[in-house]
Amino acid sequence: MSHGVVPAEVARAARGGLAPVARWLHAVGITANAITVAGVALTIVGAALLVVGQPGAALAVLVVGALADTLDGAIARAAGGGTRFGAFLDSTADRLADAAIFSAAAALGASQGDPILFWAAMVALSASFLVSYVRAKAESLGAVATVGPAPREARLVIVLAGVAGWAILALPPLFVAAVAAVALLSTLTLIQRVVAVAAALQTKSDR
Amino acid sequence: MSHGVVPAEVARAARGGLAPVARWLHAVGITANAITVAGVALTIVGAALLVVGQPGAALAVLVVGALADTLDGAIARAAGGGTRFGAFLDSTADRLADAAIFSAAAALGASQGDPILFWAAMVALSASFLVSYVRAKAESLGAVATVGPAPREARLVIVLAGVAGWAILALPPLFVAAVAAVALLSTLTLIQRVVAVAAALQTKSDR
Fold first, then answer.
1. B94 included as an active-site residue
2. Could you say which of A69, A74, B99, B149 would form a disulfide bridge with A126 (CB–CB 3.0 to 4.6 Å)?
């Protein structure tokens, strides 16, 4: 699978490093679906910490949530393969996690009277959702739409980098820039996917 | 198809009344996809009118946008059936229209310092998207998830009633109540759909 701005080698290395952890969690009886739910719960807590202006604590919680999000697939593989419900739950949890993070960014923009952060967050939320929706809808109609520079892994890495810039370098504008970058890349990805689906599906003449 | 809080007879009557209009538009060469794009463009304009505090103009534009949204399907039927790309475009445009309306509500909540409107709008936006996403994702995995009281027609009717309450009765709290109602009903619908998909997909044991 394409990871957009995240190099494939980095994604592979992260998965390789997590594999022993996943095998151990599987051995002690922790299911992939439990980790999926824990991951989205942690992300919602992290988003709430952003809203109350605690970027350091938010970063720590969000990184653990993101690792859980990668672990669930690894546990499913350690268990010999995932279930269809596991795939559905994972995808739905990812959308909920995106909603929490960008809602938090919008709330920050609103409370700080920063229209750039507010609107960047609204566009990032809507376009991120649409990128995933377009893919699922295309698949339900028998087409494929996975192109574009901003699949979920890329969006997550950019946002976490922005939170790190705010928390570690004490530069809140880096968080605003990260949200704006996700808004831009997601919109481009959305357009690419709609065009790809148009090419794949428009076999009958347009009526 | 279920229309939730909109009685089936009302939905049927609306479609029946629009059929001659649809046949005429088809006869003069206007395509379903053109009406889909016009409908979402009108909805975005209507949402922008809400943000700048013009509920009367917003109501007029949003109602025309909603009619266009119903007309596209009728034109496709008048043309002898829709294309798969038409179905894809229609669904994607609906999500974009929802994003515009609830982003406008969130912006109003932010600019008026009304946390209830802001958070109701964020939940309505995210839950509406998730309701549609869960259905598309379930279909891509071979399951069906169409249950619940808040499919798109119901959400649209509730929001338009709220805008009408604000514009015609000069009662802005009716708009806040409508957005809050959509947030609540969408969240309930989301939970119902996830449960329905769990029942349909969890044939293999949970690993």
1. yes
2. B99
